[in-house]
Write a structure and sequence with these properties.
32% of the residues lie in helices and 13% in strands. By secondary structure, the protein is α/β, with parallel strands linked by helices. Among the domains are: 279 residues, Rossmann fold, CATH 3.40.50; 43 residues, no CATH class. Strands 3-1-4-5-8-9-15-14-13-10 form a ten-stranded mixed beta sheet, sandwiched between helices. A hairpin with a 4-residue loop joins β6 and β7. It is globular, with a radius of gyration of 27 Å.
């Protein structure tokens, strides 16, 4: 117990943030085999490499593409460079354990993931209809992975080799690490840990945790004794604590932003029997002045040894207020600099979550992305086309993380708010390698980006402020005064990349945060002049303030300023270029009038959207909490009163909100006419410029609607949410 307590002190003191360098471990003995051309997917490949067994076997729901944009390739190559023999089983037949046996039993553990996307988001549309294709499968073939793939794969690993260690990870596991609302079954489900029966869950960016657990298992440590790693979750007996130094605090006592205890008074004086006496007469007490540093150090130590107990699975399943409270608490404990451990009861056992992982340094991130990837799909796929590969084939990831905090997005829950950026030299080297090694490269770099194109090297101006911050977003409701918004490192990268020999054009395909971009007109000029291929994607998401406040997105004023600069610099460059905005229909807090106003804005600005998004609730997102509970977790919660968040659950209502985004499509006109009449806005039906839709219907379009009237969406109805992966890594 003393040894375990020491380990916990080492790894979980969120204020000292002591952590071992990612590449600072002594390599495992199997490093003598050297890197494999591809991680083996068969016994024959293992034989060619001279392996009698695998130390680690990775299971994934995606095809194997040996490229750092694909999680299993990145983790596999990272473990390989630590000296381990890593095999990979892709898209196994989950109806039996046979496919899970084909590489034999791993010496250390199975690493299980659904793939780059959540398997439910991958398989189903926002209307719960099965998709007809899968971008991560050869020839886009559908139905190559099961629902809730992490759970199914982990169970099959247990069947194949009882007693083997099973570690689950990826975005699917990350978003299900505590009790969560599940849109597809419309109920609150347990953490994925008890359902999958995994030994360990690795959440977020898994590099630090997976490397350390591999080395510790290789040294003979039992996986059941590994309880001190940041970024991991596991099952423990009810009431378990790492040592006597720890204390548990009920989350209902800390449901406000800020630390558990009051800020220290730097001028406070404490009585101490052990202090040197300064008494000058009988009856006087000895006192000592406690320095600010000493007092804060004590508070930090207390925080590092505190676990916050969330309401149990059974409680949040039956009480929307407690569900919203648990969600709010979870998000407030997400900064690696000050997050405490969390625990949640599931029946007679607890799910324990250690604090989030310490972000990688620039040097570590460079090394991760410069491992010996083949940068192409495994040869076993032959000439098959894999759409996700085609999408990122000529792109380079320059950063990870997002401090935007959009409530409908899953990036923050998975990658965190702290931006981790690669160095300029590392990015340039990858472009050169792509130019020299990737078949079909024509000189066009399709993207230099990540979750957000222009957060590269943006960070808090003060590390101490960053480590103490509990804001959910650095840019909402306004850009924080402590956030650095200097875009010069990104401008420098763009300039250097486009001057490389053999590079004709560098495009920016990732979404842009325009409220940040307007802080740097020089960046916008650079972008618009050299890096836009006619169209640029940005995501206002909506025009109405009430909806935007539930999304934690900026108002349209920032969009208007960005558009002015975009248009100006396009004219100066002599280019005809356009902004392509993204909008979400049926987001929590959206009423019919909000969608109507958005449609009128679209028509006024001559936008005719081809692809539109309907809100899709993903596990653990704040907007999902709004959808399920009708409460707003962005504010302090009250059992009586408080803000009610309207939702759009009814399928017909969701179609209406989507139809407003595509007001120009004749197929939507019958539904829109009916709705406008119900809303008392029949004046918007006609052929005038200020009217939304015509009164006439083209032959062969639309369907006459005589069914139940559409009820206006408001507080009495319930909401729906969405998260959308915009590129394979999200």
């Amino acid at each position: 117990m003393a040894r375990l307590a020491a380990q916990v002190k080492y790894a979980m003191d969120s204020n000292q943030q002591v952590t071992k360098p990612l590449f600072g471990y002594r390599k495992f003995w199997a490093q003598r085999f050297g890197p494999a051309p591809f991680l083996p997917m068969s016994r024959a490949e293992m034989d060619q490499l001279g392996w009698d067994s695998c130390d680690i076997i990775l299971i994934t729901g995606d095809a194997y593409i040996d490229h750092p944009s694909f999680g299993m390739a990145l983790i596999g190559r990272l473990l390989e460079t630590q000296g381990f023999r890593v095999g990979i089983i892709c898209q196994p037949d989950w109806n039996s354990a046979a496919d899970f046996k084909k590489l034999g039993k791993p010496n250390l553990f199975f690493g299980v993931t659904a793939g780059n996307m959540d398997s439910m988001v991958n398989r189903y549309t926002s209307d719960r209809k099965i998709r007809s294709d899968d971008a991560y499968t050869p020839n886009a073939e559908a139905n190559k992975r099961p629902d809730r793939a992490v759970t199914v794969y982990a169970q099959r690993c247990r069947e194949a080799f009882p007693g083997s260690n099973v570690i689950i990870g990826s975005i699917e596991a990350s978003l299900r690490r505590i009790a969560h609302y599940d849109y597809w079954s419309d109920k609150v489900r347990r953490s994925v840990l008890p359902d999958s029966k995994a030994d360990l869950l690795v959440f977020g960016n898994a590099e630090r945790a997976i490397v350390e657990v591999a080395h510790r298992l290789a040294k003979g440590e039992k996986i059941s004794d590994i309880r001190d790693l940041r970024g991991t979750a596991f099952m423990v007996p009810t009431g378990w604590l790492p040592s006597d130094a720890w204390e548990a605090v009920d989350s209902t006592s800390v449901d406000t932003p800020g630390p558990l205890v009051k800020h220290a008074d730097p001028y406070a004086m404490e009585m101490s029997q052990n202090s040197p006496s300064t008494a000058t007469g009988p009856g006087e007490h000895a006192v000592r002045i406690v320095s600010r540093a000493e007092r804060l150090a004590a508070l930090k130590d207390k925080r590092a040894h505190t676990v916050v107990r969330l309401p149990s699975y059974e409680q949040v399943s039956n009480d929307p207020v407690l569900y919203a409270h648990a969600s709010r608490t979870f998000h407030l404990e997400s900064n690696p600099g000050n997050a405490r451990a969390l625990v949640q009861a599931h029946g007679e056992r607890d799910v324990w979550l250690n604090p989030p992982p310490i972000p990688l340094t620039t040097e570590e991130l460079d090394q991760v992305y410069e491992l010996p990837y083949a940068r192409r799909p495994h040869p076993a796929y032959g000439e098959a086309k894999i759409p996700a590969w085609e999408m990122i084939r000529f792109s380079v990831n320059i950063m990870r993380g997002c401090f935007g905090g959009c409530t409908f997005c899953s990036i923050t829950e998975h990658e965190g708010r702290i931006i981790q950026s690669r160095s300029e030299d590392s990015v340039i080297r990858e472009i050169e390698e792509m130019r020299d090694k990737t078949p079909g490269f024509t000189g066009i770099v399709s993207d230099l980006g990540g979750p957000t194109a222009n957060m590269y090297h943006l960070k808090c101006k003060d590390e101490k402020i960053e480590s103490a911050c509990r804001r959910l977003s650095c840019v909402y409701p306004d850009i924080c005064e402590n956030l650095g918004t200097d875009h010069s490192p990104l401008i420098s990268l763009y300039r250097k990349a486009r001057t490389l020999k053999g590079v004709k054009k560098v495009l920016i395909g990732s979404g842009l945060r325009y409220d940040l971009a307007v802080r740097s007109p020089e960046y916008i000029k650079e972008l618009v002049t050299h890096h836009v291929g006619g169209y640029l994607k940005i995501a206002p998401e909506h025009t109405e303030e009430g909806v935007l406040s539930k999304m934690m997105k900026p108002g349209m004023g920032a969009y208007d300023r960005f558009k002015q600069l975009f248009d100006r610099f396009s004219r100066e460059a002599g280019k005809e270029q356009y902004l392509i905005p993204y909008f979400i229909a049926a987001h929590p807090g959206t009423q019919d009038e909000d969608m109507l106003n958005l449609a009128l804005w679209l028509k006024k600005n001559n936008f005719r959207l081809d692809q539109v998004q309907t809100f899709l609730p993903t596990p653990m997102a704040l907007a999902t909490t709004m959808y399920h509970t009708e409460k707003n977790p962005l504010k302090k919660l009250h059992r009586q009163g408080g803000e009610v968040v309207g939702a759009v659950r009814n399928g017909r209502q969701r179609k209406l909100h989507k139809a407003f985004l595509r007001y120009h499509d004749p197929a939507n006109w019958p539904l829109l006419r009916e709705a406008l009449k119900e809303m008392g806005r029949a004046d918007l039906i006609g052929n005038g410029k200020k009217q939304l839709i015509p009164a006439w219907q083209p032959a062969g379009t639309g369907v006459a609607r005589t069914s139940t009237p559409i009820r206006p969406s408001g507080p009495a109805q319930r909401p729906i949410r969405q998260s959308r992966p915009r590129h394979p890594g999200k």
